[in-house]
Design a protein that fits this description.
The chain has helices at residues 8-23, 27-38, 44-69, 75-79, 81-110. It has one domain (8-110). It contains 5 helices and no strands. Helix 1 runs antiparallel to helix 2, helix 1 (8-23) runs antiparallel to helix 5 and helix 3 runs antiparallel to helix 5. 79% of the residues lie in helices and 0% in strands.
């Protein structure tokens, strides 16, 4: 029996979120998010973990840095955190979704229908 491979469109979604979302912050991330939400390869929980999880963690880091430096943080450098956050979130989310695709493939091979 031939091993089952993830559909090309699911691999493309991971690629777009990871590469395009990293290279074109904010807009690329938003495009990737829309594609992830429309994909059927992942559960709602997996999609939420890939999209919301990294953003929340990175924004928490930005908040901690802002609190740590207090009044010394200017608004403009804090705005620079938005593209950085979406770029990193894209990469982290894509890695997570790719890992889930591999896990789904292994589960399907272990328990063929």
């Amino acid at each position: 029996m031939r091993p089952q491979r993830p559909p090309v469109r699911d691999i493309a979604v991971v690629f777009i979120l990871g590469i395009v979302g990293t290279l074109i912050p904010v807009i690329g991330w938003l495009v990737g998010v829309v594609l992830v939400l429309r994909a059927s390869a992942w559960s709602g929980r997996e999609k939420a973990m890939a999209i919301v999880g990294p953003v929340v963690v990175l924004l928490a880091v930005v908040a901690v840095v802002a609190i740590a430096f207090g009044a010394n943080v200017r608004p403009l450098p804090m705005l620079a955190a938005v593209p950085l956050t979406t770029s990193l979130s894209s990469a982290i989310g894509a890695i997570y979704l790719a890992q889930r695709l591999v896990a789904h493939k292994r589960a399907a091979e272990a328990h063929p229908s």
